[in-house]
Amino acid sequence: MSPFEALYGYKPPLLSTSPHLKDVSTEAAAIIEQMRQITQLIKHNLYLAQERMKRLADLKRTDREFQIGDIVFLKLQPYRQNSVSLRKHLKLASKFYGPFKIIANIGLWHTSCNFLKNP
């Protein structure tokens, strides 16, 4: 579903630019070219906004490497992961759980923790 269809409830009108429309008036050709330029400008602006959001989000990210035996806290989202601790008011639930000891590095970004007992 396109954003236009979501907003207005019907599919957008299609301005066909197929090769069989060679006898199109100059006014229609100008409108089609203007629509093409607007579409290109919108795509470019969306690309710039995505790049800006990614650049600002990357400023807050850091690369972390954990070794076997390190002690870590796990950050959980209280509204989605409520299997760790059940609370009457989820808004007041803890965000960080642990400490847990890392027992294995599975890959570059994945580690295995000892969840059964705290160190």
Automatic annotation (TrEMBL):
Highest taxon, organism lineage: Eukaryota
InterPro entries for this protein: SH3_Tf2-1
Every Tf2-1-like SH3-like domain range: 69-107
Listed name of the protein: Tf2-1-like SH3-like domain-containing protein
Species classification: Eukaryota, Viridiplantae, Streptophyta, Embryophyta, Tracheophyta
